[in-house]
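Homework help thread (please don't just give me the answer)

Our assignment gives two proteins as sequence + C-alpha coordinate strings and asks us to describe the second one. The first is just a warm-up. Here they are:
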Amino acid sequence: MEYEIKQSGKFKYVSEGEGEPLVLLHGLFGALSNFKDLVDHFKTGYNVVIPMLPLFDLGLLDTSVGGLAKHVQKFIDTMGYSKVHLLGNSLGGHVGLVYTLKHQNKVKSLTLTGSSGLFENGMGETYPKRGDREFIRKKTELTFYDPKVASKELVDEVFDIVNNRLKAIKIISLAKSAIRHNLGEELQDIKVPTCLIWGKNDTITPPMVAEEFHKLISTSELHWVDKCGHAPMMEVPVEFNAILSAFLEKHKG
Protein backbone atom coordinates (compact mmCIF):
# COMPACT_ATOMS: atom_id res chain seq x y z
CA MET A 1 0.00 0.00 0.00
CA GLU A 2 1.21 3.48 -0.85
CA TYR A 3 0.49 6.09 1.80
CA GLU A 4 -0.46 9.64 0.94
CA ILE A 5 2.25 12.07 2.04
CA LYS A 6 0.52 15.13 3.49
CA GLN A 7 2.04 18.53 4.14
CA SER A 8 1.43 21.20 6.78
CA GLY A 9 3.83 24.12 6.41
CA LYS A 10 7.33 22.66 6.30
CA PHE A 11 6.20 19.31 7.74
CA LYS A 12 5.61 16.23 5.62
CA TYR A 13 3.82 13.30 7.22
CA VAL A 14 1.54 10.31 6.81
CA SER A 15 -1.75 10.25 8.75
CA GLU A 16 -4.04 7.20 8.68
CA GLY A 17 -7.14 6.43 10.74
CA GLU A 18 -8.87 8.29 13.55
CA GLY A 19 -8.55 8.30 17.32
CA GLU A 20 -5.79 9.12 19.78
CA PRO A 21 -2.58 10.04 17.91
CA LEU A 22 0.03 7.27 17.68
CA VAL A 23 3.17 8.99 16.38
CA LEU A 24 5.82 6.73 14.79
CA LEU A 25 9.46 7.85 14.56
CA HIS A 26 11.62 6.05 12.01
CA GLY A 27 15.36 5.36 12.19
CA LEU A 28 18.33 6.33 10.03
CA PHE A 29 17.27 4.11 7.13
CA GLY A 30 13.59 4.07 8.03
CA ALA A 31 11.41 3.80 4.97
CA LEU A 32 7.62 4.03 5.28
CA SER A 33 7.47 0.35 4.39
CA ASN A 34 9.08 -0.40 7.79
CA PHE A 35 5.79 0.50 9.48
CA LYS A 36 3.32 -0.90 6.94
CA ASP A 37 1.94 -3.75 9.08
CA LEU A 38 1.81 -1.52 12.15
CA VAL A 39 -0.10 1.23 10.34
CA ASP A 40 -2.56 -1.23 8.78
CA HIS A 41 -3.23 -2.84 12.17
CA PHE A 42 -3.63 0.29 14.32
CA LYS A 43 -5.36 2.72 11.94
CA THR A 44 -8.71 1.16 12.87
CA GLY A 45 -8.44 2.47 16.45
CA TYR A 46 -5.86 5.26 16.36
CA ASN A 47 -4.75 8.18 14.25
CA VAL A 48 -1.41 6.72 13.16
CA VAL A 49 0.98 9.50 12.18
CA ILE A 50 4.49 9.23 10.71
CA PRO A 51 6.35 12.55 10.50
CA MET A 52 9.08 12.47 7.84
CA LEU A 53 12.18 13.22 9.87
CA PRO A 54 14.44 15.65 7.96
CA LEU A 55 17.53 13.45 8.14
CA PHE A 56 19.07 15.08 5.09
CA ASP A 57 17.48 18.54 5.14
CA LEU A 58 18.81 20.15 8.31
CA GLY A 59 21.99 22.22 8.36
CA LEU A 60 25.01 20.17 9.38
CA LEU A 61 25.11 21.75 12.86
CA ASP A 62 21.46 20.77 13.44
CA THR A 63 21.88 17.27 12.00
CA SER A 64 21.77 15.65 15.42
CA VAL A 65 19.48 13.74 17.75
CA GLY A 66 18.64 17.03 19.47
CA GLY A 67 17.90 18.73 16.15
CA LEU A 68 15.48 15.96 15.18
CA ALA A 69 13.80 16.08 18.60
CA LYS A 70 13.19 19.82 18.09
CA HIS A 71 11.62 19.02 14.71
CA VAL A 72 9.29 16.49 16.40
CA GLN A 73 8.37 19.04 19.06
CA LYS A 74 7.47 21.64 16.41
CA PHE A 75 5.53 19.03 14.43
CA ILE A 76 3.46 17.92 17.45
CA ASP A 77 2.75 21.56 18.34
CA THR A 78 1.80 22.41 14.74
CA MET A 79 -0.60 19.45 14.59
CA GLY A 80 -2.23 20.62 17.83
CA TYR A 81 -1.87 17.31 19.67
CA SER A 82 -2.30 17.67 23.42
CA LYS A 83 -1.19 14.08 24.20
CA VAL A 84 0.43 11.48 21.97
CA HIS A 85 1.40 7.84 22.11
CA LEU A 86 5.00 7.92 20.86
CA LEU A 87 6.80 4.97 19.26
CA GLY A 88 10.37 4.97 17.96
CA ASN A 89 12.60 2.40 16.31
CA SER A 90 16.40 2.68 16.41
CA LEU A 91 17.40 6.37 16.06
CA GLY A 92 13.67 7.21 16.16
CA GLY A 93 13.51 5.75 19.68
CA HIS A 94 16.43 7.96 20.71
CA VAL A 95 14.68 11.03 19.27
CA GLY A 96 11.49 10.01 21.09
CA LEU A 97 13.37 9.73 24.38
CA VAL A 98 14.93 13.19 24.02
CA TYR A 99 11.50 14.66 23.18
CA THR A 100 9.83 12.84 26.10
CA LEU A 101 12.43 14.00 28.62
CA LYS A 102 11.58 17.62 27.74
CA HIS A 103 7.81 17.24 27.21
CA GLN A 104 6.48 14.48 29.49
CA ASN A 105 3.17 16.34 29.83
CA LYS A 106 2.58 15.77 26.08
CA VAL A 107 3.35 12.02 26.04
CA LYS A 108 0.68 9.53 27.09
CA SER A 109 2.86 6.48 26.45
CA LEU A 110 6.27 5.71 24.98
CA THR A 111 7.26 2.57 23.06
CA LEU A 112 10.87 1.79 22.19
CA THR A 113 12.08 -0.97 19.91
CA GLY A 114 15.77 -1.38 19.08
CA SER A 115 16.32 2.15 20.38
CA SER A 116 19.67 3.89 20.52
CA GLY A 117 20.39 6.20 23.43
CA LEU A 118 22.60 3.95 25.54
CA PHE A 119 24.69 1.82 23.18
CA GLU A 120 24.52 0.74 19.55
CA ASN A 121 26.64 -1.02 16.95
CA GLY A 122 26.33 1.12 13.85
CA MET A 123 27.48 0.75 10.27
CA GLY A 124 30.81 2.15 11.35
CA GLU A 125 31.96 5.73 11.08
CA THR A 126 32.97 5.53 7.44
CA TYR A 127 31.56 3.88 4.36
CA PRO A 128 33.41 1.85 1.75
CA LYS A 129 33.90 3.37 -1.66
CA ARG A 130 30.62 4.40 -3.17
CA GLY A 131 29.09 1.70 -5.29
CA ASP A 132 29.90 -1.26 -3.01
CA ARG A 133 26.39 -2.70 -3.10
CA GLU A 134 27.42 -6.09 -1.69
CA PHE A 135 28.75 -4.44 1.50
CA ILE A 136 25.45 -2.55 1.91
CA ARG A 137 23.44 -5.73 1.33
CA LYS A 138 25.35 -7.59 4.06
CA LYS A 139 25.06 -4.67 6.49
CA THR A 140 21.32 -4.37 5.82
CA GLU A 141 20.87 -8.11 6.41
CA LEU A 142 22.50 -7.73 9.84
CA THR A 143 19.46 -5.68 10.88
CA PHE A 144 17.39 -8.87 10.91
CA TYR A 145 17.49 -12.35 12.40
CA ASP A 146 16.28 -13.68 9.03
CA PRO A 147 18.41 -12.05 6.29
CA LYS A 148 15.61 -12.65 3.76
CA VAL A 149 13.68 -9.78 5.37
CA ALA A 150 16.28 -7.49 3.76
CA SER A 151 14.46 -7.40 0.42
CA LYS A 152 16.02 -6.09 -2.77
CA GLU A 153 13.84 -2.96 -2.43
CA LEU A 154 15.10 -2.31 1.09
CA VAL A 155 18.75 -2.83 0.10
CA ASP A 156 18.23 -0.52 -2.89
CA GLU A 157 16.83 2.22 -0.61
CA VAL A 158 19.83 2.02 1.75
CA PHE A 159 22.25 1.83 -1.19
CA ASP A 160 20.76 4.95 -2.78
CA ILE A 161 21.21 6.88 0.49
CA VAL A 162 24.83 5.93 1.14
CA ASN A 163 25.74 6.34 -2.53
CA ASN A 164 24.80 10.02 -2.28
CA ARG A 165 27.83 11.80 -0.83
CA LEU A 166 25.90 14.52 1.04
CA LYS A 167 23.39 12.03 2.47
CA ALA A 168 26.23 9.74 3.55
CA ILE A 169 27.86 12.66 5.41
CA LYS A 170 24.55 13.43 7.15
CA ILE A 171 24.08 9.75 8.12
CA ILE A 172 27.57 9.62 9.64
CA SER A 173 26.88 12.90 11.47
CA LEU A 174 23.65 11.53 12.95
CA ALA A 175 25.28 8.22 13.90
CA LYS A 176 28.06 10.08 15.74
CA SER A 177 25.50 12.32 17.42
CA ALA A 178 23.61 9.25 18.68
CA ILE A 179 26.81 7.83 20.19
CA ARG A 180 27.68 11.15 21.87
CA HIS A 181 24.14 11.80 23.13
CA ASN A 182 24.09 9.06 25.79
CA LEU A 183 21.02 9.26 28.01
CA GLY A 184 22.19 7.01 30.84
CA GLU A 185 22.15 9.85 33.39
CA GLU A 186 18.68 11.10 32.43
CA LEU A 187 16.49 8.06 31.86
CA GLN A 188 15.55 7.75 35.54
CA ASP A 189 13.62 11.02 35.10
CA ILE A 190 11.12 9.41 32.70
CA LYS A 191 7.78 8.80 34.45
CA VAL A 192 5.72 8.08 31.32
CA PRO A 193 4.43 4.48 30.87
CA THR A 194 7.06 2.87 28.61
CA CYS A 195 6.94 -0.34 26.61
CA LEU A 196 10.21 -1.96 25.48
CA ILE A 197 9.74 -4.48 22.64
CA TRP A 198 13.08 -6.07 21.82
CA GLY A 199 14.39 -8.71 19.46
CA LYS A 200 16.39 -11.34 21.38
CA ASN A 201 18.74 -11.52 18.39
CA ASP A 202 19.27 -7.79 17.92
CA THR A 203 22.98 -7.29 17.14
CA ILE A 204 22.76 -3.49 16.72
CA THR A 205 21.20 -2.68 20.11
CA PRO A 206 21.76 -6.03 21.86
CA PRO A 207 19.53 -7.47 24.62
CA MET A 208 21.74 -5.96 27.35
CA VAL A 209 20.65 -2.52 26.06
CA ALA A 210 16.98 -3.38 26.60
CA GLU A 211 17.76 -4.65 30.10
CA GLU A 212 19.56 -1.39 30.91
CA PHE A 213 16.63 0.69 29.59
CA HIS A 214 14.28 -1.43 31.73
CA LYS A 215 16.43 -0.91 34.82
CA LEU A 216 16.75 2.87 34.33
CA ILE A 217 13.11 3.64 33.37
CA SER A 218 11.07 2.73 36.44
CA THR A 219 7.76 2.91 34.55
CA SER A 220 8.85 0.45 31.84
CA GLU A 221 7.81 -3.06 30.92
CA LEU A 222 10.06 -5.28 28.80
CA HIS A 223 8.86 -7.76 26.18
CA TRP A 224 11.22 -10.10 24.33
CA VAL A 225 10.62 -11.35 20.80
CA ASP A 226 12.49 -14.54 19.92
CA LYS A 227 14.23 -15.10 16.56
CA CYS A 228 14.09 -11.40 15.84
CA GLY A 229 16.63 -8.65 15.17
CA HIS A 230 16.64 -4.86 15.28
CA ALA A 231 13.24 -4.12 13.70
CA PRO A 232 10.55 -6.33 15.32
CA MET A 233 7.68 -4.37 13.72
CA MET A 234 9.02 -5.51 10.30
CA GLU A 235 10.29 -8.99 11.10
CA VAL A 236 7.53 -10.33 13.39
CA PRO A 237 4.65 -7.86 12.89
CA VAL A 238 1.88 -10.07 14.29
CA GLU A 239 3.66 -10.63 17.60
CA PHE A 240 4.82 -7.00 17.76
CA ASN A 241 1.33 -5.64 17.14
CA ALA A 242 -0.19 -7.94 19.78
CA ILE A 243 2.27 -6.71 22.44
CA LEU A 244 1.81 -3.07 21.45
CA SER A 245 -1.97 -3.37 21.30
CA ALA A 246 -2.18 -4.77 24.85
CA PHE A 247 0.11 -2.00 26.13
CA LEU A 248 -1.73 0.84 24.39
CA GLU A 249 -5.13 -0.39 25.58
CA LYS A 250 -3.94 0.02 29.18
CA HIS A 251 -3.06 3.67 28.55
CA LYS A 252 -5.83 4.73 26.20
CA GLY A 253 -8.52 7.25 27.04
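The one we have to describe:
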Amino acid sequence: MIDASMAPWAALILRIALGILFIAHGLLKLLVFKPAGAYGYFKSLGLPGSFAYLAMAAELIGGAALIIGIVPRYVALVLIPLILGTIVTVHGKNGWMFSNKDGGWEYPAFWALALFVQFLLGDGAWTLLASPNWF
Protein backbone atom coordinates (compact mmCIF):
# COMPACT_ATOMS: atom_id res chain seq x y z
CA MET A 1 0.00 0.00 0.00
CA ILE A 2 1.23 3.49 -0.85
CA ASP A 3 1.45 6.01 1.98
CA ALA A 4 -0.24 8.92 0.22
CA SER A 5 0.98 11.43 2.79
CA MET A 6 4.64 10.50 2.24
CA ALA A 7 4.65 9.74 -1.51
CA PRO A 8 5.12 13.40 -2.57
CA TRP A 9 8.18 13.63 -0.33
CA ALA A 10 9.58 10.37 -1.68
CA ALA A 11 9.14 11.70 -5.22
CA LEU A 12 10.88 14.94 -4.21
CA ILE A 13 13.87 13.09 -2.75
CA LEU A 14 14.17 10.88 -5.83
CA ARG A 15 13.80 13.90 -8.11
CA ILE A 16 16.57 15.85 -6.36
CA ALA A 17 18.90 12.84 -6.31
CA LEU A 18 18.38 12.26 -10.04
CA GLY A 19 18.88 15.95 -10.76
CA ILE A 20 22.15 16.03 -8.83
CA LEU A 21 23.42 13.00 -10.77
CA PHE A 22 22.62 14.64 -14.09
CA ILE A 23 24.22 17.94 -13.14
CA ALA A 24 27.33 16.12 -11.89
CA HIS A 25 27.69 14.24 -15.18
CA GLY A 26 27.04 17.36 -17.24
CA LEU A 27 29.63 19.35 -15.25
CA LEU A 28 32.12 16.49 -15.62
CA LYS A 29 31.86 16.79 -19.39
CA LEU A 30 31.89 20.60 -19.31
CA LEU A 31 34.56 21.34 -16.71
CA VAL A 32 36.80 18.25 -16.58
CA PHE A 33 36.75 16.70 -20.04
CA LYS A 34 35.94 20.10 -21.59
CA PRO A 35 33.59 20.38 -24.57
CA ALA A 36 36.37 19.56 -27.04
CA GLY A 37 37.27 16.40 -25.11
CA ALA A 38 33.64 15.29 -24.89
CA TYR A 39 33.27 16.01 -28.61
CA GLY A 40 36.28 13.82 -29.37
CA TYR A 41 35.04 11.04 -27.11
CA PHE A 42 31.65 10.95 -28.78
CA LYS A 43 33.37 10.80 -32.17
CA SER A 44 35.54 7.92 -30.93
CA LEU A 45 32.31 6.03 -30.17
CA GLY A 46 31.20 6.47 -33.78
CA LEU A 47 28.65 9.11 -32.88
CA PRO A 48 28.50 12.63 -34.26
CA GLY A 49 30.70 14.82 -32.06
CA SER A 50 27.88 17.34 -31.78
CA PHE A 51 25.97 14.80 -29.67
CA ALA A 52 28.38 15.70 -26.85
CA TYR A 53 26.93 19.19 -26.73
CA LEU A 54 23.38 17.80 -26.78
CA ALA A 55 24.24 15.39 -23.96
CA MET A 56 25.79 18.16 -21.84
CA ALA A 57 22.80 20.41 -22.40
CA ALA A 58 20.32 17.63 -21.62
CA GLU A 59 22.20 16.67 -18.46
CA LEU A 60 22.55 20.23 -17.16
CA ILE A 61 19.13 21.54 -18.15
CA GLY A 62 17.33 18.29 -17.31
CA GLY A 63 19.10 18.02 -13.95
CA ALA A 64 18.22 21.60 -13.06
CA ALA A 65 14.59 21.07 -14.13
CA LEU A 66 14.36 17.99 -11.90
CA ILE A 67 15.83 19.79 -8.89
CA ILE A 68 13.75 22.94 -9.11
CA GLY A 69 10.65 21.08 -10.24
CA ILE A 70 9.86 22.20 -13.77
CA VAL A 71 7.56 19.50 -15.20
CA PRO A 72 9.78 16.89 -13.55
CA ARG A 73 7.58 13.91 -14.40
CA TYR A 74 8.07 14.48 -18.12
CA VAL A 75 11.67 15.64 -17.82
CA ALA A 76 12.42 12.26 -16.23
CA LEU A 77 10.69 10.49 -19.12
CA VAL A 78 12.59 12.51 -21.73
CA LEU A 79 15.94 11.74 -20.07
CA ILE A 80 15.47 7.96 -20.21
CA PRO A 81 16.66 7.62 -23.85
CA LEU A 82 19.85 9.53 -22.95
CA ILE A 83 20.69 6.96 -20.27
CA LEU A 84 19.67 4.01 -22.44
CA GLY A 85 21.96 5.44 -25.10
CA THR A 86 24.91 5.09 -22.72
CA ILE A 87 24.10 1.40 -22.39
CA VAL A 88 23.96 0.92 -26.16
CA THR A 89 27.01 3.02 -27.06
CA VAL A 90 29.36 2.71 -24.05
CA HIS A 91 28.53 0.39 -21.19
CA GLY A 92 26.66 -2.52 -22.79
CA LYS A 93 29.75 -4.17 -24.24
CA ASN A 94 31.49 -4.06 -20.83
CA GLY A 95 29.22 -6.62 -19.18
CA TRP A 96 26.76 -6.26 -16.35
CA MET A 97 28.80 -5.07 -13.37
CA PHE A 98 29.68 -1.39 -13.27
CA SER A 99 32.94 -2.35 -11.55
CA ASN A 100 34.09 -3.98 -14.82
CA LYS A 101 36.72 -2.17 -16.88
CA ASP A 102 35.12 0.97 -18.37
CA GLY A 103 31.91 0.31 -16.37
CA GLY A 104 29.22 -2.22 -17.18
CA TRP A 105 25.59 -1.43 -17.78
CA GLU A 106 24.24 -2.14 -14.27
CA TYR A 107 24.39 1.49 -13.06
CA PRO A 108 22.88 3.15 -16.15
CA ALA A 109 20.11 0.52 -16.21
CA PHE A 110 19.24 1.31 -12.60
CA TRP A 111 19.39 5.03 -13.39
CA ALA A 112 16.95 4.57 -16.30
CA LEU A 113 14.64 2.57 -14.05
CA ALA A 114 14.77 5.29 -11.36
CA LEU A 115 13.82 7.86 -14.01
CA PHE A 116 10.84 5.72 -14.99
CA VAL A 117 9.82 5.40 -11.33
CA GLN A 118 9.99 9.20 -11.08
CA PHE A 119 7.67 9.43 -14.07
CA LEU A 120 5.23 6.98 -12.45
CA LEU A 121 5.36 8.73 -9.05
CA GLY A 122 4.78 12.17 -10.52
CA ASP A 123 6.24 15.54 -9.69
CA GLY A 124 6.41 15.29 -5.91
CA ALA A 125 6.40 18.09 -3.36
CA TRP A 126 7.81 21.58 -3.95
CA THR A 127 7.27 21.68 -7.69
CA LEU A 128 7.78 25.02 -9.40
CA LEU A 129 5.82 24.10 -12.56
CA ALA A 130 3.65 21.00 -12.28
CA SER A 131 3.47 18.51 -15.11
CA PRO A 132 0.17 18.36 -16.99
CA ASN A 133 -1.81 15.26 -16.04
CA TRP A 134 -1.82 13.46 -19.41
CA PHE A 135 -1.95 9.97 -17.88
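TA reply:
I won't write it for you, but here's a hint about the kind of observation we're looking for: The radius of gyration is 16 Å.
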